[in-house]
Design a protein that fits this description.
Layout (H helix, E strand, L loop, with lengths): L3 E6 L28 H17 L4 H4 L8 E12 L12 H10 L4 H11 L8 E14 L12 E2 L45 E8 L8 H15 L1 H6 L4 H6 L13 E7 L3 H6 L3 E2 L5 E4 L2 E9 L4
Parallel strand pairs: 4-8, 5-6
Antiparallel strand pairs: 1-2, 2-3, 3-5, 6-9, 7-9, 8-9
Helix pairs in contact: 3-4
Length: about 300
């Protein structure tokens, strides 16, 4: 890999909720209407490889209600491969052509014969072409958000069920739900770095394919998303402009007021040091909780948005 490219997908809307692994491979003529944006399919292919395949997050939980209203970034690797044979591609000179060129340049017959003998068995080489492979992704969710998870509780990824009437997951390290409905968990320990009212954005679903880790792509994605947010305060504050969405989360954290640059990540505990290096500070008051069987902590960073 020699270069990287980054694509920004603005909030794609409800069409992405029809995404499945089967729709991701359908040709455009047979995809649902309205079609699912190709960058979103690419982001989901990365998230499935990392969260579903590697970390055993249930596939049905990976896509959630925040995806339609989030900004998504996808980073690509530059890859080279043989150019498809379309029948009219220009091929490299055949051995006889190379010999003729040598003769025209004044080289002797013996030299040309030796060259022909060495290359006669070599097939013509096709030209290569450069493409891009999606290898990393991140998303930024605007306010408002579900209540912070209670310390010691267990949830779907990113606390996705926080606003639903579904029963919560058990507090054991498991991916199964309890059989008896109980109230949605509420915050039992107040965060020390958030007053429960100030709007904040949530950075999440950071994922890089295994073969492309250690190259700084995760940091590139985090910095790109945060820099964009800092330059687009009004867009972040208004979100995608869905009044229905705001009504759905009325009264929860960050549902009113101006966004002043506060950013939250639900960090897997083994990545706490990584996010600390990016300027995030752990909120001890939020404690620790399980998301899909993986222990998480809350970490905050404030951007300078003027």
């Amino acid at each position: 890999m020699s270069t990287q490219f980054i694509t920004l997908l603005p909030p794609p809307g409800p069409s992405v909720l029809s995404y499945t692994r089967s729709t991701s491979s359908l040709p455009p003529s047979t995809t649902p209407s309205p079609p699912i944006p190709q960058p979103f399919k690419e982001a989901m292919s990365i998230r499935e490889a990392v969260f579903v395949t590697e970390q055993c997050v249930p596939l049905e939980n990976e896509l959630d209600a925040d995806d339609p209203r989030s900004w998504h970034w996808i980073v690509y690797a530059s890859v080279s491969g043989p150019k498809p044979d379309t029948g009219d591609d220009e091929e490299e000179p055949q051995p006889q052509q190379a010999q003729q060129q040598q003769q025209e340049q004044g080289q002797g017959q013996d030299s040309g014969a030796r060259d022909h003998h060495q290359k006669a068995s070599s097939p013509p080489r096709r030209k290569s072409e450069t493409g891009k492979l999606p290898v990393g992704t991140i998303r930024l969710v605007p306010p408002p958000h579900a209540p912070h998870p209670a310390s010691g509780s267990e949830h779907k990824i990113d606390n996705a069920e926080g606003l639903s009437s579904s029963p919560p997951l058990s507090t054991t390290k498991s991916h199964t739900q309890t059989t008896s409905p109980t109230p949605t968990p509420t915050l039992t320990t107040a965060p020390s770095l958030h007053n429960g009212k100030e709007p904040y954005v949530k950075l999440g679903r950071l994922a890089t394919l295994k073969a492309y880790r250690g190259l700084g792509l995760g940091t590139l994605l985090v910095n790109t998303a945060l820099e964009w947010a800092g330059r687009n305060k009004e867009s972040v504050q208004m979100g995608p402009g869905d009044a229905v969405e705001r009504e759905r989360v009325e009264g929860v954290e960050g549902s009113a007021g101006a966004w002043k640059g506060l950013v939250l990540v639900h960090a897997q505990t083994h990545l706490e040091g990584y996010y600390a290096g990016l300027g995030f500070v752990r909120d001890e008051g939020m404690g620790e909780w399980w998301e899909e069987g993986i222990m998480h902590v809350g970490m905050w960073r404030r951007l300078d948005v003027g």
